[in-house]
Amino acid sequence: MKEILKKTLPVNMVNHISVVKTYFRLRKETILQMKRFARSYAKRTSCKKEHIETHIIFLTHQIEKGLSHRNFRYGFGMKVIKQLAVLLPKLRQIDEEYSDNEVYRMAIAALHHYKTKHEDEHFDLSNVQSCFDEQTWHDISKEDSNYGGVLTIEAKDKTKNASLTFPKLMENRHSIREFADEQVTAEEIIPAIEMAMRTPSVCNRQPTRVRIITDQAILPKVMKLQGGMNGYPIPPAMILVTADNQAFMDSIERNEGFVDGGLFSMSLLLALESIGLAACPLNTMMTIDRENETRHLLGVPDNEFLVMYIAVGHFSEKILAPISYRFKAKDIISII
Ligand SMILES: Cc1cc2nc3c(=O)[nH]c(=O)nc-3n(C[C@H](O)[C@H](O)[C@H](O)COP(=O)(O)O)c2cc1C
């Protein structure tokens, strides 16, 4: 019947029916996707190991970011510390082998750096210590490892980036959130974008669009709306990566712009590193109001999805960056 209708009805009408069917499929698939996400994400109330670990990693990252600030603020992060003080014993309860749990050790190591950094300056940590139970404070005191904390990045080590092997380039790239005072121009950034154009995309449809923002009046507004680099100086430039949904044809392609734009962004991060520019990927996970303000500010039309920002600048002589410890590859691989 379907085939007979397809053959007998005028092409125009068949196309219209297909558009209506796609709309209803888009609705159904989006709702199913929403439900799957709602079932899985790390709710604050959850006692599941994976969920607790997610919150611990998030909070550990806040500690590492605080440790990396050039204008270090002694006693920072009490809110974060109080949350970790609850979650770390919770994780110990769930995971008997917690001493080998990398997430536990990442948090404990970052807190160890926090402790020694303050102790070196004879800063009174009694209110921090009082947040933790005896076991956690004992673990923090003895975890002197590179599972967490900060590392030093120096501009002099970046001068030969163009000739580094791929593994070395990959290993040495770190997110940099504070840059040299020197401005960076669009002309300096464009060669990296040209390199990233070799990024593959679905059917070569190339949905990625890139805006380079160097306008000193717009940058503070962008950073305020983005919100993920609060407390750091305004970067010399921001790149906004978006995906043009006009490159897609069906409901099942609805997330592809994020995939293609994400791949492009990673190429761009490595390309920037290769030409000796410092960068930090930044999320575009905003409330609808903030997203609308961003769209208005930067002239992003309705047909584009926001994928991510990248802050860009020159490397300053010496700067600290979060360690952001990585799981071992063997722990994320399943061979089928
Ligand atoms: C999509 C995306 C969004 C990010 N958003 C932020 C952000 O809003 N603020 C921030 O300080 N870092 C942000 N980051 C940087 C991550 O914290 C960083 O990549 C991670 O800790 C790994 O560290 P590395 O990039 O130094 O290897 C983001 C990274 C990605 C990939």
Automatic annotation (TrEMBL):
- Which InterPro entries does its entry note? Nitroreductase (IPR029479), Nitroreductase-like (IPR000415), Nitroreductase/BluB (IPR050627)
Q: Name one Pfam family in it.
A: Nitroreductase
SUPFAM superfamilies, per database record: FMN-dependent nitroreductase-like
Print the keywords alphabetically.
Flavoprotein, FMN, Oxidoreductase
| Gene3D superfamilies linked | NADH Oxidase
Instruction: Enumerate the spans annotated as Nitroreductase domain.
Output: 171-222, 237-314
Q: Which GO terms describe its molecular function?
A: FMN reductase [NAD(P)H] activity
Q: What is its EC number?
A: 1.5.1.39
- Superkingdom to which the source organism belongs: Bacteria
Q: What is this protein called?
A: Nitroreductase
Q: What is the gene called?
A: nfrA2_2
